[in-house]
Write a structure and sequence with these properties.
about 210 residues; mainly alpha; single chain
């Protein structure tokens, strides 16, 4: 039995219309992907949801739905990784507190508050931080350790300038150490190196702070 020619013509026109809509959907999807590539996942999801609804029934809409499922899985994995990292940071901060590593504890708590404010670990970090800040002797030790670290870093910076063949920058850094940390071993080491460089500008002997 032959099919109805009129029905075939209607079907052909409908298919052509659907193909045209699908082509338009593909063009808009390509444009959205290029525009949203660097945007947060949540923003990309909202835009793709609207696009999938607008072109529902097309093959492109099905592909968009597949992409949305992939984004949701990526989001789930990223959240799990963030939760794991936040838990590790909190555990390390609590260990630092118990072992009297006050500066390390402060730094970890600060990172939790900055990068994981939406997670419960941030609230626990805030409580730990407040507990630490009620003890001025602990804060003093943290400040002392930070001073030591800054002194070490500046001395290492000066040596780095010397290795790069920039003695004037090294001298400026040693002078900065002397001004920032008077009466410390870092200032004494800087004084010695300044004397060596003044006596022999080509000397680049390295030392450990």
């Amino acid at each position: 039995m032959l099919e109805d020619p009129q029905a075939l013509a209607v079907h052909a026109r409908a298919k052509a219309a659907l193909d045209s809509i699908d082509q338009l959907a593909r063009q808009q999807w390509d444009a959205e992907q290029a525009k949203l590539a660097a945007r947060p996942i949540e923003e990309r999801q909202r835009a793709l949801e609207k696009l999938a609804q607008r072109f529902a029934g097309t093959s492109t809409a099905e592909q968009i739905r597949h992409t949305l499922a992939q984004l949701a899985e990526t989001q789930r994995q990223e959240l799990a990784q963030r939760q794991q990292l936040a838990a590790s940071l909190l555990e390390a901060a609590q260990a630092d507190f118990s072992q009297h590593n006050w500066l390390a504890c402060l730094e970890r708590c600060d990172r939790l508050l900055r990068e994981f404010a939406d997670l419960p670990e941030a609230k626990q970090a805030q409580a730990l931080l407040e507990q630490l800040k009620t003890q001025p002797e602990h804060m003093q030790r943290a400040c002392d350790r930070l001073t030591e670290r800054l002194g070490e870093l500046h001395l290492a910076l000066a040596e780095s300038w010397l290795r790069k063949g920039e003695p004037q920058l090294a001298i400026a850094t040693y002078q900065k150490v002397s001004a920032m940390f008077p009466g410390t071993r870092y200032a004494e080491l800087a004084r010695v190196r300044l004397h060596q460089l003044t006596e022999n500008p080509f000397q680049q002997t390295q030392f450990s702070p």
